[in-house]
Amino acid sequence: xxxxxxxxxxxxxxxxxxxxxxxxxxxxxxxxxxxxxxxxxxxxxxxxxxxxxxxxxxxxxxxxxxxxxxxxxxxxxxxxxxxxxxxxxxxxxxxxxxxxxxxxxxxxxxxxxxxxxxxxxxxxxxxxxxxxxxxxxxxxxxxxxxxxxxxxxxxxxxxxxxxxxxxxxxxxxxxxxxxxxxxxxxxxxxxxxxxxxxxxxxxxxxxxxxxxxxxxxxxxxxxxxxxxxxxxxxxxxxxxxxxxxxxxxxxxxxxxxxxxxxxxxxxxxxxxxxxxxxxxxxxxxxxxxxxxxxxxxxxxxxxxxxxxxxxxxxxxxxxxxxxxxxxxxxxxxxxxxxxxxxxxxxxxxxxxxxxxxxxxxxxxxxxxxxxxxxxxxxxxxxxxxxxxxxxxxxxxxxxxxxxxxxxxxxxxxxxxxxxxxxxxxxxxxxxxxxxxxxxxxxxxxxxxxxxxxxxxxxxxxxxxxxxxxxxxxxxxxxxxxxxxxxxxxxxxxxxxxxxxxxxxxxxxxxxxxxxxxxxx
Length: 520
Fold this sequence. Notes:
By secondary structure, the chain is of the alpha+beta class. The protein has helices at 2-17, 107-110, 112-115, 163-176, 219-232, 277-291, 308-313, 335-348, 354-368, 385-401, 406-418, 434-442, 449-465, 490-500, 504-508, 511-519, and strands at residues 31-39, 45-47, 54-62, 67-75, 86-95, 99-106, 121-130, 135-158, 182-190, 195-201, 204-212, 235-243, 253-254, 257-258, 261-264, 273-275, 295-301, 318-323, 376-381, 421-422, 431-433, 466-471, 483-485. It contains 16 helices and 23 strands. α4 (163-176) packs parallel to α8 (335-348). The N and C termini lie far apart (123 Å).
């Protein structure tokens, strides 16, 4: 009997410890699940232009605790075990709430649009429920997307001699960072580092992805970057910057390699990867399709890229091109000034015209450099580039029709020796300022009336096409916003004509036929 009593006591103690006695140790660990959210405007996108009046956050809580706290976070990842990248935006205490739970937040009290002062892009909602003794996390299946007015995206290929400049430019971007109107994002390939993607806050470079070694000169790599932008940092407007070396359309010898745009060493000492201008246009065409709209602004922070031929090649995907006629200094664009001025423009006017931003970039670049650097930067309206190209075609036809006139031939060759040219490489100065070239033709009394009239038409169309033109260190009127291929010798023509003929401009105009007559 004594043994039986002892067994009864042991069983009773066991049941008590397992919850049978109703003591504090009987409370099961808290859990949270089925995290969802819904907005009153029926979309998971929050924007300043269309903010929801309210958002309902729902989840299930399983607990026996009489009260608990709830914290709502935004996280760039949906990994429940990775809570290093979370931003708390709401906290509350709940009592006697179990099972299905809802928290309704209205825009006036929380300010969803105010979240964009600090964050930008695609976030998952994470819920943390806590009692005095335990806590649990869960995450939404769908992301909440903060859509801003503009995304400023830099495709930075520094896998070459520009690696140091990339570091400096990233630091400039960090000095200003993103704000409620503007996402600043970068994909960077360094000389000694893999390709990484960043979101840039003020004084904070946030690495979002590391992609390993990629060839930044490949069409697909550029397309993938822009698809990532669309999915993660949607905006009403897009400003895409191509950052690297540039050489216009040519592949003349420069140092140990040849290039036209986007030189990627790929960690080798042999031939580098390059992107041709037609491939660049193909990538931008596909980017435009991905975005579902024309790209508002494409900036090329590289040497010698603001050519009529380049502008014409990307006309179907892009509204505005910003770039340089001349070589650019090593430091490239002043990103701190540019980003700050864009944000100031947007603060003044939410619906700021992209042309206003383009003009500001040109002014910032020109003002950043001493005239001894001979900086050039211009913004081009690609919606008007067809008219300019058509007028250049008419000029080429007029010159060809009069090429049997020895005076015309001699005069054009004399103009060729006096036109404003830009250094390309070695003895190659084959990029001529279009405006200066056409002015010299128009003002010369040896030209026939039809040539002069065609030249005047080019000048009028050039004026209408150039949104902004900034330069210093040159004679007034000799830099007009766009260059055109005008080779200074038959060897340069012969070395590059097969490459030139791949361009839409050569296919659609008689300019290459005129150049053949000029150089042979």
